[in-house]
Amino acid sequence: MSQKLDSTLFENDRRNNVQSGDRRVKRTQQMLQQAFMELVVEEGFNSMTVQILAERAMINRATFYRHYDDIYDLAEKVFLKIIDEHLVSVQAFMPGHPIETLQRMFEHCAAYAPFYLSLLSEMPRFQELVRETIEKELVIFFKTIGVDEEGMTIPLPILLRYWSTAQMGIVQWWLESGQTHTSLEMAQYLWQLFENGPVEQLQLPKEQED
């Protein structure tokens, strides 16, 4: 009986230590992520070093490397955390409400405008990460609504790259130009482009049949 009690107490202590360790890890990561976002906005991504980041988060360099491989790894983790929170908030609007969904996306980007602009202009890998995220979510969305890939006239990878590049480029232009159009207007414009395309919008001459 005593041995069983000792075993139970030991297991409880072990779990408490693990939970305490998990809280410390989470707290340290939150400090680093917050410091990273602040410094990107204040100084720009290219000016950041692990030493500067560690000093802002009030930790040492060794602690940083226990949590992240490098600055790029941290940047990716921060973006994925932010975008995951956004995607959870818009799930109720998809499918069936593309303009409202896109409006939420523009509003999200506006809320993090200085952060996104710095990374889009200074970190090439970030552009790839944004495109990959958009394409991944599109694939999930297309499967949800039952898109028949076999019946498409354009290969899906080409369509995905066109969509993700257009969306990212238009968002970046909107942020760089000072958001002169509302998020709703931008959502409507972007959806019109997806529905009709630039050739239709510009009323350009179409391919003539022989």
Features:
mainly alpha; 9 helices; 210 residues; elongated
Compute the CA-based radius of gyration: 23 Å
Number of helices: 9
Spatial gap, N to C terminus = 93 Å
Portion of residues in beta strands equals under 5%
Tally of DSSP β-strands? 0
**Estimated helix fraction:** over 70%
Overall form = elongated
Explain what this protein looks like in three dimensions:
It is a single chain. This protein is an all-alpha fold and 210 residues long. It has helices at 2-43, 50-57, 61-67, 71-90, 98-111, 113-122, 124-144, 156-176, 183-202. It is 78% helix and 0% strand. The model has no long low-confidence stretch (mean pLDDT 86).
Give the topology.
Layout: H1 2-43, H2 50-57, H3 61-67, H4 71-90, H5 98-111, H6 113-122, H7 124-144, H8 156-176, H9 183-202
Helix pairs in contact: 1-2, 1-4, 1-6, 5-9, 7-8
